Amino acid sequence: MQRGQGQLSETFYSTSCPKVESIVRQVVAQKIAQTFVTIPATLRLFFHDCFVEGCDASVIIASPNGNAEKDAPDNLSLAGDGFDTVIKAKAAVEQSCPRVVSCADILTIAARDVVALAGGPSFKVELGRRDGLISMASRVAGNLPEPNFNLAQLNAIFAKNNLNQTDMIALSGAHTLGFAHCTRFANRLYSFSPSSPVDPKLNSTYAQQLMQACPQNVDPQIAINMDPVTPRTFDNSYFKNLVNKMGLFTSDEMLFTNKASQATVVDFANNPGNFNGAFIAAMRKLGRVGVKTGTAGQIRVDCTAFNS
Q1: Residue 32: how many CB atoms within 10 A of its CB?
Q2: In degrees rounded to 5, what are phi and psi of residue 181?
Q3: 289 contact partners, CB below 8 Å, separation of at least 6
Q4: Burial, 204: exposed, middle or buried (Cβ in 10 Å; 0-12, 13-18, 19+)?
Q5: Whole-prediction pTM value?
Q6: Any bridge partners for residue 9, and if so which?
Q7: Which intervals hold domain Plant heme peroxidase family profile (predicted)?
Q8: Residue 110: how many CB atoms within 10 A of its CB?
């Protein structure tokens, strides 16, 4: 059991802030109406938060010295719209229930909401996390999966967070949404190996499309949809794409080409209900990682700063 995990509860705020989930949902919906990026940005922010120091909103802290968790190289590509969603939701919640609901819980609720609002499954979230007191850029390296990881490396980094291979594959399905910068997969198009510049595991038509979108030496700001089929819908297309050799990262495609994970990918590609069920289970488990409860941590007033 992770420390304090047993003290999370779906009804944690039922008397202290009974409307918290509807308040957050309203802010999230408004933010999505302004920009679609809200959806992948918020979901990814939750994942990055939980994998470093646990689900404690440590990733949202801003440092004047540029040395907070969010300033680490692996976190620089986290889109501002995810942070903004949590900050706006926190402000709305503070008006109803000041100093009651943690930023960590607001991020957890918002991550659940963006999945549902993108057409994915709805599910209940456990609440009662408190906000962390540590946020350091130096503590990020080695704690987040990289796009070139193999199955053993992915399984190891997820296992460290109490997540098994099925959870890892289900959470990878979040790549049905959002964008990736060309630099993160250019090696598969231009420099895969001396004998084959293009990764032979990449669908050749898809490789041509990627080369058009991401020419060599392209502006590093350029990003493309991770799911070229239904980029704005939370569905199981990611797994269908993998079967069709259209996984964008090596760490995506490998889930299909490695025999040890292939059966799960094929199952999720063929059975959206199985994927949704596994995704919900994995999100709930992810939300328990390294949580602070009881008197640990604090309830931040401003999500971007520790209480003074």
Answers
A1: 19
A2: -75, 140
A3: 2, 50, 51, 54, 55, 161, 162, 163
A4: exposed
A5: 0.96
A6: 127
A7: 7-307
A8: 27
The count of residues in the chain is 308
Sign of CA dihedral 30, 34, 37, 41: negative
E strand residue ranges, the chain: 179-181, 223-225
Sign of CA dihedral 247, 252, 253, 257: negative
Decide: 10 and 81 in contact? Cβ < 8 Å: no
Interatomic CA distance for residues 280 and 278, integer angstroms: 6
Which residue in the block uniquely carries the two structure tokens 């609901």? 101
131, amino acid identity? D
Note the maximum CA span of the chain: 65
Rg (CA), the chain: 19
Q: Catalytic residue numbers?
A: 48
Q: Residue holding tokens 């802010």?
A: 27
Tens of pLDDT, residue by residue over 179-201, are 999 999 999 999 999 999 999 99
Nearest of 160, 150, 140, 163 to residue 249 by alpha carbon: 150
pLDDT digits (tens, 9 = 90+) for 32-42: 999 999 999 99
Distance CA 308, CA 305 (A): 8
Crossing angle of helices 272-286/38-51, nearest 10°?
50
For residues 149 and 151, give the distance between their C-alpha atoms in angstroms, rounded to a whole number.
Answer: 7
Residue 63 near residue 135, CB atoms below 8 Å: yes
Q: How far apart are CA 242 and CA 240, in angstroms?
A: 5
